[in-house]
């Protein structure tokens, strides 16, 4: 069972897997893979961003400036097998 698998992680288990309710909410949350990105941030490492426009090789993102990386949909938060992710950074 899933609970038996997670028991090996002890106290950390609740932080490694979302509840069923959270997983359903994440799967139903609107997500646009073409505009959702992560932006390198000097203090936070990466912050979420949304592409506002692309023109002549320049991208305008709604957040702080930095290098841009594609973002995975919310359904992949706390995923147990990273091989299933669309983007790895």
UniProtKB/TrEMBL annotation:
<dbReference type="GO" id="GO:0005524">
    <property type="term" value="F:ATP binding"/>
</dbReference>
<dbReference type="InterPro" id="IPR004009">
    <property type="entry name" value="SH3_Myosin"/>
</dbReference>
<dbReference type="InterPro" id="IPR008989">
    <property type="entry name" value="Myosin_S1_N"/>
</dbReference>
<dbReference type="GO" id="GO:0016459">
    <property type="term" value="C:myosin complex"/>
</dbReference>
<keyword id="KW-0175">Coiled coil</keyword>
<keyword id="KW-0505">Motor protein</keyword>
<dbReference type="Pfam" id="PF02736">
    <property type="entry name" value="Myosin_N"/>
</dbReference>
<comment type="similarity">
    <text>Belongs to the TRAFAC class myosin-kinesin ATPase superfamily. Myosin family.</text>
</comment>
<dbReference type="GO" id="GO:0003774">
    <property type="term" value="F:cytoskeletal motor activity"/>
</dbReference>
<protein>
    <submittedName>
        <fullName>MYSS protein</fullName>
    </submittedName>
</protein>
<keyword id="KW-0518">Myosin</keyword>
<keyword id="KW-0547">Nucleotide-binding</keyword>
<dbReference type="GO" id="GO:0051015">
    <property type="term" value="F:actin filament binding"/>
</dbReference>
<keyword id="KW-0067">ATP-binding</keyword>
<keyword id="KW-0009">Actin-binding</keyword>
<feature type="domain" description="Myosin N-terminal SH3-like">
    <location>
        <begin position="32"/>
        <end position="81"/>
    </location>
</feature>
